[in-house]
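Handout, page 2. Input:
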Amino acid sequence: MVRPIFILTTDLRPGEAAAWASMNAQAASLQAFAERALGISTKVDLACLPARSTEDPGEYQIGRVIDRCVGDGASILFVMPAAFDLNIWQRTMLGEELGAARRRHAGVSIHHDSVDPTHALLVDCFAGQILRALDERGVAPRNAGLVLVADGQGEPATRADSYRLMRLLWEQAGLGRGEVGFVRHPQPFLPDTLDRCLSEPLDWFLLPQRQWDGELCDFARVMLDDYQRAHPETAGWRLLDPPRDHPAILAWLEQRMLRLWQEKRAREAARIPSARNEPPPAQAGVWSGADWVPAGEAQIRPRAGCVTRARDSAALAEILARVLPQAERYLVKVTWHGYAPGTYTGPQALDLLLGSLPGRAVLLEGHTSSRNVGGEQIDWDADAERHRTWVRQQDIEFLRRTGLAEVIARHGAQYLNVTEAWWDGACAPAEDVWTALGGVGLRNPELAGFVPSALMELRGIPLISFARFKGPTRLGISNLFGLIPHPLRTEWHGPDITHFASVCCDLARLYGSFFPLFGLVEAFDSAVRWDRKGLYRSRWGNYDLVLTDGLFTVSEGLVGADLLASRLQGQDVRRSGFYDVVRDQLGWSQAEAEMALPSDLQASLV
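Output:
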């Protein structure tokens, strides 16, 4: 399947075997970082950016690398120049190659950035080189001078960057003097800079503005050797080694990868696509692990769950019939925590589900402190019940304003509010619940006192946790948290994610003892993607809405659907405090955590 590819363009030649091998190792480290940070399968490739037009990099020429990646199915490419000092030819060739590639591959999204040699991580890297050399020579920084050696054959702005870098290094290292010398530009030519240095009684160190050994280092070494032969008193001046595979450079490249990815997401969120270019709607289907197949032909293992697509109730019914048992009535735990767009079960999603079920639905939810339009001062922790008339009115207003009331009425569904049952004293006695639980233990035994008596009378009918794609852990298992009747559940969140997970797993064990549980995590029309600079705002922070096409995950039990939805949103479920608790208390297999997923879909959601 499609996966984003990052292309590092370096001024190294493939013939420079040792440095090229190190660059390949760096690319492998970046690939591992990208897959860990972005949560999707990706690839990091290398391309060569030769210093002269007469050089042919062969298969590593940028255009050929892009063609090869596109031929392998890539639809998103990120080109990252890795050279610290591009000359005019390199900069021109990079622009022309990218322009030509975009014309050849109009359907491929090609992004690139530019190099800032004065980035804080690069400054730290070079300053470390200088300070280490001073320590080896026993020279105090104030008694040392720096000559930053650059190519100089670039644009004026590129040469200005060299001066900025020198100034930053001079300040950070506390040096006595700083100069710049170019090997391919006359102002100032490196030998002329060395003449000026000769008049200063300092120990001078020459630092090449380059990551790897190469022509710049060779030219600087020859010029320094010639100068030292002509001026024996400069025999102690030293040309420093380039940083090569310094960890700070890897961190700098990692930051650029993340920034490119985030900028791409921001552009996609802000851009309104033309209806003319809108792709045809996806057909209903099930992800097989390799491709999308029609629902009737798919092999569905209900316990493990599946990634599916359905755009209407008929298509959804065909898939659910393979997972849900036939029943006259279904319990559906919706998520109605507040008004933030796209974060709650909306009328379209509810209409789609209710229209696909063969029986009537009983909707479950509790009051929350955020599902209101304001205007009343309430201590939600201690005083909410005294204001229950207002709270109930706000609940009714929420259903009216969002269009949910109309959907509920049209499908003849019922709505049971667990908070109202608790306030009415209509919860089953805890001892009766414990008796019914048998040997099932709970780490939070108070939960046994929160089960409405009306639900105890419905034992045995299917309960669907109908959750939204809104983060890697806020899915079907977490959705049961709303069955705690307190309108303000801060105390139940606890001090950390593992406490919260333990409460949610207890609720799954509690309700799973009375009802067969099923998870359905939907992004029928959009998914939430959290971003501090996102367009939308909720009490949990800013976010964007990513348009989808009938996407949902479903499973018998809650775990399978949650694992798939979480992984689609970039979570490594094997390295998650939340899912460590889920594995311990509810259990899940490696197959559920390792099933191959559509990487293009992952890339759009992360």
